[in-house]
Write a structure and sequence with these properties.
The chain has 601 residues and is of the alpha+beta class. The chain folds into 5 domains: 179 residues, Rossmann fold; 85 residues, Translation factors (Elongation Factor Tu (Ef-tu), domain 3); 74 residues, Alpha-Beta Plaits (2-Layer Sandwich), CATH 3.30.70.870; 107 residues, Alpha-Beta Plaits (2-Layer Sandwich); 116 residues, Elongation factor 4, C-terminal domain (Alpha-Beta Plaits). Helix content is 25%, strand content 33%. It contains 13 helices and 31 strands. The protein has an 8-stranded antiparallel sheet. The protein has a 6-stranded mixed sheet with strand order 2-3-1-4-5-6, sandwiched between helices. Strands 21, 22, 23, 24, 25 and 26 form a 6-stranded antiparallel sheet that branches. The longest helix has 21 residues. It is elongated and about 115 Å long. About 1% of the residues have low confidence.
Length: 601
């Protein structure tokens, strides 16, 4: 294989800008997929990806394109996820490329996530080919979007490729630009092996299969390989290209993209971003940029039926085989029984896992309130990581609590600046700066506490901007904050699954709203139910649910009044005794009530 005839590239775009459709047309025009086999969103093989119109798992595919009579080029498309939750996978896919297609919707223009991924591509010194998609639509604003791109990239308007991924217009010209503009790989086959893992899948028969880009050296069957991140060794059984099906080869050399089968038992041993080298001829150092996937959002998952605990455990084990970023450990709750504390990359990742548990394993689950991880410093100098509010220490033992802060980029039409500023102030956002991208669009930068954005921040942002604002964010640092644990008590007993950590300024508001919501949700019992919100031993809000009352004196016609009093006293004593031993039934809606507290505010 002539390394100069290889082009490794990726497509970066905001959600719904046509990335998957463009990939479909590239596969079709290079005859990688026949018209008979072609289906929409070909590389998105999960039902959830098709339904939501997003790429959840990154993909790679090898295409051959005949540029002229005697020149056939190999094009390796390394597709990337389109959501901010999977930004680390995006960064590793970009590290495996020499160039990117920057795809922008002609009707929507440059959006926040496009910018964020573009800056990553620039940091990697990748060749950027600007592409305007959906030029066939009647409301396409081609001239305006061209101005945005020329200002953003400092390029000329004639360097921008105009395409319609839906109709196929401009796709041939785009393929030629890929070959002309994107440089070939610069790897050296004679150097010690260095291969970047940018993705991996799990096969029931062959184990975990890492997808790799060989940077230097050669990898072939019988090679003993060494993983830098976990320091494990394996023997390679097979290597090959990533076509429609896996295509076994004698070797993969520097510059090529492919897969490795090496009897690896699970995906945890093939971490995205890790470097593969030879055991007996090691590279001096791993490739830069690796970091373990770090969950940002934590939630408890409990089976609705406690008998399904083992089924839930098996289901999570199977999902873990395919998704190394999913973390979980057993936990128990007085209110919900036995379940698991799970860590997710973000709220979308959490939704995807919940949906897959139900669809693929038919398990109905109760989810506790999503939380973030806090750093708690004690007076003894100890530092603890707390992701479950019920594990927070007593107030007198804590010196300070630090919460995770994100740097958020919001791109919006200028007419919505006031609404967004108000939303940011309500969510404790700190405005950093503002820059106009053109006459009508502005880029706002904020620092937000992560916990303020994980419930419904994105939904509210879309609502107040009529759907035009876009959001992108990245983790920044931990900062001290005045935080307190808010407990919900039912008849004096704390319900651990309803506990939450809130900012001191919002504690009363959250407590009052939550007990009011729970009063409507929790069904009436035969005795009075007292709902209280408390911080430590101090009750800050209270509601009561009146008991169901049976008329015990209905059959007493006339006679002495003392007989009726005796029956009423007997009923009163019975209700007291029932209140002591009775268990309040808490419906699943109660655990979701916290997510909708803001809606009534």
């Amino acid at each position: 294989m002539d390394i100069n005839k290889i082009r490794n590239f990726s497509i970066i775009a905001h959600i719904d800008h046509g990335k998957s459709t463009l990939a479909d047309r590239l596969l079709e025009i290079t005859n990688t997929v026949s018209k008979r086999e072609m289906k929409a969103q070909f590389l998105d093989d999960m039902d959830l990806e098709r339904e939501r119109g997003i790429t959840i798992k990154s993909h790679a595919i090898r295409m051959e394109y005949k540029f002229s009579d005697d020149e056939v080029y190999i094009l390796n498309l390394i597709d990337t996820p389109g959501h901010v939750d999977f930004s680390y996978e995006v960064s590793r896919s970009l590290a495996a490329c020499e160039g990117v297609l920057l795809v922008v919707d002609a009707t929507q223009g440059v959006e926040a996530q496009t910018l964020s991924t573009l800056y990553q591509a620039m940091d990697n010194n990748l060749q950027i080919i600007p592409v305007i998609n959906k030029i066939d639509l009647p409301n396409a604003q081609i001239v305006l979007v061209m101005e945005q791109l020329t200002e953003l990239l400092g390029c000329n308007s004639n360097e921008i490729v105009l395409v319609s991924a839906k109709t196929g217009e401009g796709i041939k010209e785009l393929l030629e630009e890929i070959i002309i503009q994107i440089p070939p790989p610069e790897g050296k086959p004679q150097e010690p092996l260095q291969a970047l893992i940018f993705d991996s899948i799990f096969d029931n028969y062959r184990g975990a299969i890492p997808y790799i880009r060989v940077i230097n050296g050669v990898i072939k069957p019988k090679t003993r390989i060494f993983m830098f991140a976990n320091e494990k060794t394996f023997e390679v059984d097979e290597v090959g290209y990533l076509g429609l099906k896996k295509d076994p080869q004698e070797e993969l050399i520097a510059g090529e993209v492919g897969y490795v089968v090496a009897n690896i038992k699970n995906v945890r041993e093939t971490r995205v971003g890790d470097t593969i080298t030879e055991t007996f001829n090691k590279a001096s150092s791993p490739l830069p940029g690796y970091r373990p996937a770090k969950p940002m959002v934590f939630s408890g998952l409990y089976p609705v039926n406690n008998d399904e605990y083992n089924l839930l455990k098996d289901a999570l084990d199977k999902l873990k085989l395919n998704d190394s970023s999913l973390l979980y450990e057993p936990e128990s709750s007085k209110a919900l029984g036995f379940g698991f504390r799970c860590g997710f990359l973000g709220l979308l990742h959490m939704e995807i896992i919940q949906e897959r548990l139900f669809r693929e394993h038919k398990i109905e689950i109760i989810t506790t309130v999503p939380n973030v991880e806090y750093l708690v410093y004690t007076h003894d100098g100890e530092r603890l990581s707390i992701d479950n509010p019920s594990n927070l220490l007593q107030e007198n033992l804590i010196e300070r609590i630090e919460e995770p802060i994100i740097s958020a980029k919001i791109i919006t039409p200028s007419e919505f600046i006031g609404n967004i500023m108000k939303l940011a102030a309500d969510r404790r956002g700190i405005h950093k700066d503002m820059e106009y991208m053109d006459k009508s669009r502005v880029n706002l930068n904020f620092d937000f506490p992560l916990v303020e954005t994980i419930f419904d921040f994105y939904d509210k942002l879309k609502t107040i901007s009529k759907g035009y604002a876009s959001l992108d964010y990245e983790f920044l640092e931990y900062r001290p904050a005045e935080l307190e644990k808010l407990d919900i008590l039912l008849n004096g007993e704390a319900v651990d699954a309803l506990s939450m950590i809130v900012h001191r300024e919002k504690a009363y508001y959250w407590g009052k709203k939550l007990v009011q919501k729970l009063r409507k949700i929790i069904p009436r019992q035969l005795y009075e139910v007292i709902i209280q919100a408390a911080i430590g031993s101090r009750v800050i809000a209270r509601e009561s649910i009146k008991p169901l009352r049976k008329n015990v004196v209905a059959k007493c016609y006339g006679g002495d009044i003392t007989r009726k009093r005796k029956l009423l006293e007997k009923q009163k004593e019975g209700k007291k005794r029932m209140k002591r031993v009775g268990k309040v039934d808490i419906p699943q809606e109660a655990f979701l009530a916290i997510l909708t507290v803001e809606d009534d505010g």
